[in-house]
Write a structure and sequence with these properties.
heterodimer, A: 410 residues, alpha+beta, Sulfite Oxidase, Chain A, domain 2, 3 domains, 31% strand, B: 105 residues, mainly alpha, Cytochrome Bc1 Complex, Chain D, domain 2, 5 helices, elongated
């Protein structure tokens, strides 16, 4: 039986949700290639093999071997709200990444505009009050491959994101132990990865001091209850709930409190977005004021109905997916089977945390044969709604357009 | 005594938190796979100049890009990321990139 035929059969049995998830993960295991379906083509990618990237699983979408860029297939988000560590996407700027970490010798330095310099072992950190939060980690350039016109960069589909329960310590608690001096403006974070060109800019990111001390920004030593995979930043990673992953510095080894603006390349020149709603501009437009990227916007996805699925006419079907609010919670998820002309309110799953993925479900039938477009739309608790029109900027950042899935009723 | 205070504070918390989490163990993985290289006519020069930092997928996964965009990508790699590329090799590198992932414009 061909994949499509089986899918149609499963739809008729009314077991679409669970069965389709099992089918897609089985299919992913059997396949060695995957097509992201990017506009203009060239979306074909190979899938990772077991053991190819340390603790990462087989079946991830291989965007680049070195420095590693691995994407999580959408089917993974259908299986669970918390993205398994071995399937969590991977993104590194520089290829000089330590391939081993000695847990006893590792130290996190806290220094700069502070009363004292700290050198903390993992045991020191684990002895501080423990803090845990669920939060989505999403690459600034997630979904870049769908930009029209296309832009250069990591040509991601929608899987440069993941949701995890992060366990560790509040950054505030660590900064308080170092004693932040009056006049501190920013806190800069650096990890153990190094440039592969002699004078290349070391990857570092900064947060404003008040943000760094907000009691939610944290240093994680565990992800979903386990130590982080090396490629997700073992042993320590900064977690900035609600903000894009560029700030979530991996293999965090150095924290520097600054009494001045951070002029480093990764803050001043890279990761800039148009200072406009949805980071939107026109291709070719010049003189657009630019600011560092920051908070995320609401997004939502259908996870159990791939594009071009054939659905039995007049049969009840359950659509399912994930949503997140950005830098706040999910207020509502709406679902449409007529390309957004009419909407129904989806049923929301358990709230596992303001900044995490939220499951949604909607029942529908397609009464007429032919092409239909399914859409899903998230409104966050601040009232921000996903836009009808896709944004555009030259770096391919911050896509959050309402997702459209073409299907055929047969 | 002043120096001891933070250490004592850490110890005090330690007795509580030790139950909740186990210390991470040392980890080693194999990151030696260099990934694919560029192939075909003109590939040697591109491999020499580009693959010290990244494997060939970075280019091969791109959409078709205008030659001017490839030119600016090479310039960015040199100016911003400090790739050591000999000025005289730039045209041949851009030519190769435009050949494998050019848009014809």
């Amino acid at each position: 039986m061909k994949l499509v035929d089986r899918r149609r059969f499963l739809l008729r049995t009314g077991q679409f949700g669970l069965a389709a998830a099992a089918l897609s993960s089985r299919a992913a295991r059997a396949q060695s290639a995957f097509d992201l379906g990017l506009p203009g083509g060239n979306g074909a990618r190979t899938l990772t093999k077991a053991g190819e990237f340390g603790q990462k699983s087989e079946g991830l979408i291989l965007q680049r071997t070195r420095a590693p860029l691995l994407e999580t297939p959408m089917s993974v988000f259908d299986e669970t709200i918390f993205t398994p560590n071995d399937k969590f996407y991977v993104r590194w700027h520089w290829a000089d990444i330590p391939d081993q970490i000695d847990a006893d010798k590792f130290r996190l330095t806290v220094r700069g505009h502070t009363d004292k310099t700290l050198s903390l072992s993992l045991k020191d950190l684990m002895a501080l009050p423990q803090f845990e939060i669920a939060a989505v980690n999403q690459c600034s350039g997630n979904s870049r491959g769908f930009f029209a016109p296309r832009v250069p960069g990591g040509e991601w589909g929608n899987g440069a994101m993941g949701n995890a329960k992060w366990t560790g310590v509040k950054l505030k608690d660590v900064l308080d132990r170092a004693g932040v001096k009056p006049g501190a403006l920013n806190v800069r974070f650096n990890g153990l990865d190094q440039p592969t060109s002699p004078d290349g800019p070391d990857f570092m990111k900064s947060l404003a001091i008040d943000h760094a001390r907000d009691g939610e920004v944290m240093i994680a030593y565990a992800m979903n209850g386990k130590p982080l995979p090396l490629l997700n930043g073992f042993p320590l990673r900064l977690v900035v709930p609600g903000w894009f992953a560029t700030y979530w510095v991996k293999m965090l080894s150095d924290i520097e409190v600054l009494d001045h603006a951070d002029e480093n390349f990764w803050m001043k020149t890279a990761y800039l977005i148009p200072d406009r709603p949805f980071a939107n501009m026109k291709p070719g437009e010049t003189g657009v004021p630019m600011v560092p990227i920051g908070k995320m916007l609401p997004r939502s996805f259908v996870t159990n109905i791939p594009a071009a699925s054939k659905i039995a006419t007049s049969a009840p079907v359950k659509a399912r997916g994930i949503a997140f609010g950005g830098d706040c919670g999910v207020k509502e998820v709406s679902f449409s089977t007529d390309d957004g002309k009419s909407w129904q309110t989806a049923k929301l799953g358990k709230d596992e945390g303001t900044y995490g993925f939220r499951r949604w479900e909607a029942d529908f039938t397609l009464p007429e044969r032919g092409a239909h477009t399914i859409k899903v739309r998230c409104t966050n608790t601040k009232g921000e709604v996903q836009p009808d029109e896709a944004n555009w900027n030259g770096s391919g950042y911050m896509r959050n357009v309402i997702e459209a899935t073409p299907v055929e009723a047969v | 005594m002043k120096k001891l205070a933070p250490a004592l504070a850490l110890l005090a918390f330690g007795s509580i938190a030790a139950i909740a989490a186990e210390a991470p163990k040392s980890v080693k993985i194999d990151l030696s796979n260099p990934g694919p290289y560029f192939t075909g006519e003109g590939a040697d020069l591109v491999n020499e100049n580009c693959t010290a930092c990244h494997s060939a997928e970075m280019v091969l996964s791109q959409p078709p890009l205008a030659k001017a965009t490839w030119q600016s990508e090479v310039t960015k790699m040199m100016k911003v990321y400090k790739a050591s590329v000999d000025e005289k090799d730039i045209p041949a590198i851009v030519e190769y990139l435009n050949k494998v992932r050019g848009s014809g414009s």
